[in-house]
Amino acid sequence: xxxxxxxxxxxxxxxxxxxxxxxxxxxxxxxxSGKVLLARVVDVFQRCRAIDQIVxxxxxxxxxxxxxxxxxxxxxxxxxxxxxxxRRQDSVAAGLSRLSNCHWVVIHDGARPLxxxxxxxxxxxxxxxxxxxVAAVPVTDTIKVAGDDLIVQGTPPRRNLWAVQTPQxxxxxxxxxxxxxxxxxxxxxxxxxxxxxxxxxxxxxSYGNIKVTTADDLAIAQVLWEKQAN
Length: 230
Known about the structure:
7-stranded mixed beta sheet
C-alpha cells in the first residue's frame, strides 16, 4: 500500500483569480461543454478516491454562487468555500488554513479544467519520495533570455526546460512551513518550497492540461474536453 493511501489527503482548488484577460467573462463560471468550468475541476477531485477533503477558494463576488454550486452538485468532500486574497499565494494560504489533519495536500489551479484523476494520483505517488512533486511538461519552443532592452542574453538548452503546471503535491507540514516563511511574491507554490532547500520532483503532466487565461484558451479547453470525452 502506498504511503498516501494510509494518510489523509486534502486538496486546495485556487479559483480566486480576477479573469482580467477574459474580456469581461468570469472564467470560473464560464461553460466548458455545458458545465461550469469550476465544476469540471471539482468533479474530478470529488471522484478521485485518494482525496479526502476539498477546499475551494473563490473571489469574494463568486462566493455565494460557489456555495450554491457545491450544494447543487452534492460534492461531499468539499468542506469549505472560502474567499481568496489579493495574490494567488494569499488564496492558497487561506485554503491551507481550512484543511483539517491532512498529511498531504494537492494544490490545483481552478482554471485548469482538464485535470484528471490519473494526474492527481501520479502526483501523490511522485511526492512520496521527496515530499513535493509538481506536474510539468517539457518545453517544445526554443526559449530566449532577454534583458529589459529585449536584447538576447542567452539560449538555455531546451532539454533542461519544463513548463510547470498543477496539480502540485506536498507534505502538509512542508508547504505550511513554506507559506509561513514566504516573503516574496511567487506564482508557483513549489518555488516557496524550493526556497527552503527542499527537493521538488517533476512528474509528467499533460499538454492538454491547459490553464484558461483568455477567451481563446476557453475555446481550446472546449475542444480538448470534447476530444477527451470521446
